[in-house]
Design a protein that fits this description.
Elements: E1 3-9, E2 14-19, E3 25-28, E4 35-36, E5 47-52, E6 55-60, E7 68-69, E8 72-73, E9 78-79, E10 85-88, E11 91-98, H1 111-125, E12 131-137, H2 143-159, E13 165-170, E14 173-178, H3 183-197, E15 202-208, H4 215-227, H5 241-248, H6 250-254, E16 258-263, H7 270-281, E17 286-289, H8 297-300, E18 305-309, H9 316-322, H10 325-328, E19 332-337, E20 346-349, H11 357-375, E21 381-382, H12 384-392, H13 398-412, E22 417-418, H14 425-431, H15 436-454, H16 459-466, H17 470-480
Parallel strand pairs: 3-4, 16-19, 16-20, 17-18, 18-19, 21-22
Antiparallel strand pairs: 1-2, 1-11, 3-5, 5-6, 6-9, 7-8, 7-10, 10-11, 12-14, 12-15, 13-14
Helix pairs in contact: 2-3, 4-13, 11-12, 11-13, 12-14, 15-16, 16-17
């Protein structure tokens, strides 16, 4: 069977577009078109291309479409051959015959690459341009079906003109980062993924700045939508003595006049402490976003309590208004910031999660308990090895990063105990001080778990996949304590 494509030549760009069997390609200038051309001469769906008997066929969708094939007017369906040129408006579409060899599987980035790329794109967006994150869960599909789904999704998104970075955040979770699109175009791409992936795949997405402006905020939002859990934790989990003391100060801080600044890394718990202050005062605050230049400042003047998030991103003149004693008198004004605010009379610093090791494990247990219900695995527990890895990590994404890591681990664990193999590789690498022998043992465990997971714990199939005798796989499973997970 041949493979066909179009070389699309417009006044704005030149780009190839594949023609897929069983899926017509509609060309036009509206949202209903598969290939949208910015040409006012075109209708919403002006013409279509489809593969019939292994040949491309062009079909003008209207008697006055003005479609020309090799400079000859075309008003009815017409088979095409390689080299034919279809002209419509100011655009030309040249038919290409490609090699019939099977298309190579798209290159997928690793989990670490995805995390770095999302952080870079989030910094570039800086809350001024949309940025999309798409999850496609392939759980329950075999390797061939998973590869076909991946190719289908990647090709469909590429046909929209979007330049996406694709990778695997977990063994069965295709992840796409889609930058540099307008909000409407981005929503269109995100809405396309679900129908293309098919009914056996679950999809979820997050969009900046709607769901946050940091990479970890987007990861958390997408994970929560995929698993159906709330987007944030309402009650703090406190274990570290310093954190307990901070929250114990809420009553005293809430009684002080003037603004209170809460500083610390984004995601460290600043907003949670601010909520504790408002609860102590018994008021519901008006929330203003510093990165939005505090446009609602005038309406907040009448509110008894105001929460200004990321006030360090606001212009200096706006910050001066926020801390003006004439405005803040008798009002509880709480400012959150990543930098120290010397203009505020009271400044409370929330330390980063890396400085609160007891909180790390307490929060990890809280998030795992939440994830157990979401994935329907009530027996999941955290192993001692996983605890050591979590304690050793620096948590640059703070509490948000810990939460989505635990949501991921609950879904990725192949046993009822969450071990280091269910955690992102970068955590295990950073927290490991193992000898060469233990490192080899960990590698052997990961290979066995990967093969067993991909074969649904069919030991014979896993042995074939690994190129080992079945008795060897059974022996190594017993030596490593690997047992089929109970569901």
């Amino acid at each position: 069977m041949s493979r066909w494509a179009l070389l699309v030549i417009t006044p704005q760009r030149v780009a190839p577009v594949d023609l897929l069997v069983g899926r017509p390609l509609f060309v036009g200038r509206g949202r209903g078109a598969s290939l949208e051309l910015k040409d006012p001469q075109l209708e919403e769906r002006h013409l279509s291309f489809r593969i019939v008997d292994d040949r491309p066929v062009v079909d003008p969708l209207g008697p006055a479409s003005g479609v020309r094939v090799n400079d000859v007017p075309c008003s009815a369906p017409m088979p095409l051959v390689a080299g034919d040129e279809v002209a419509v408006g100011d655009n030309r579409l040249v038919v290409l015959a490609l090699s019939s060899a099977r298309a190579a599987a798209p290159r997928l980035a690793s989990e670490d690459e995805l995390v770095v790329r999302l952080d870079e794109e989030a910094r570039r967006s800086a809350a001024t341009r949309p940025l999309g994150l798409v999850f496609v869960s392939t759980s329950g599909l075999n390797v061939a079906a998973r590869q076909a789904l991946t190719r289908r999704v990647v090709e469909a998104v590429a046909q929209t003109g979007a330049v996406a970075c694709w990778g695997e955040l977990a063994a069965d979770l295709l992840t796409g980062i889609v930058p540099e699109l307008g909000e409407a175009e981005l929503e269109r791409v995100v809405s396309l993924v679900g129908p293309v992936a098919g009914p056996r795949a679950q999809t979820a997405s997050a969009v900046a700045p709607r769901d946050g402006v940091l990479g970890d905020q987007l990861f958390e939002a997408a994970w929560c939508r995929l698993l159906g859990v709330p987007p944030s934790v309402e009650e703090p989990t406190l274990a570290e003595a310093s954190t307990v003391r901070l929250f114990a100060m809420a009553d005293e801080l809430a009684s002080r006049p003037g603004p209170v600044a809460i500083t610390g890394p984004p995601g460290s718990g600043r907003t949670m402490l601010a909520k504790a202050l408002f609860q102590s005062r018994g008021v519901e605050p008006v929330v203003l976003e510093g990165r939005g230049s505090l446009e609602g400042l005038a309406s907040a003047l009448r509110a008894p309590a105001v929460l200004v998030r990321d006030v360090d991103r606001a212009p200096p003149e706006v910050l001066a208004q926020v801390v003006d004693p004439a405005w803040t008198k008798r009002r509880l004004v709480v400012l959150t910031s990543a930098a120290r605010l010397d203009a505020a009379p009271v400044v409370v610093e929330v330390p980063g999660l890396a400085q609160r090791p007891a909180d790390v494990l307490a929060l990890a247990e809280t998030f795992l308990r939440e994830a157990r219900a979401a994935v329907g695995r009530p027996r999941l527990s955290l192993s001692d090895d996983a605890r050591r890895v979590l304690s050793a990590w620096t948590w640059p994404g703070e509490v948000r990063e810990l939460r989505w890591v635990m949501l991921r681990a609950a879904r990725a664990a192949v046993r009822d105990e969450v071990g280091p193999d269910a955690l992102p590789a970068r955590l295990s690498a950073a927290g490991s001080s193992a000898t060469l022998r233990s490192a080899l043992k960990d590698a052997e465990r990961e290979l066995l778990l990967e093969a067993l997971a991909r074969t649904r714990w069919n030991v014979t199939a896993a042995a074939t996949r690994l190129g080992l005798p079945r008795r060897t796989v059974v022996y190594r499973m017993a030596r490593l304590g690997l047992r089929r997970p109970s569901r």
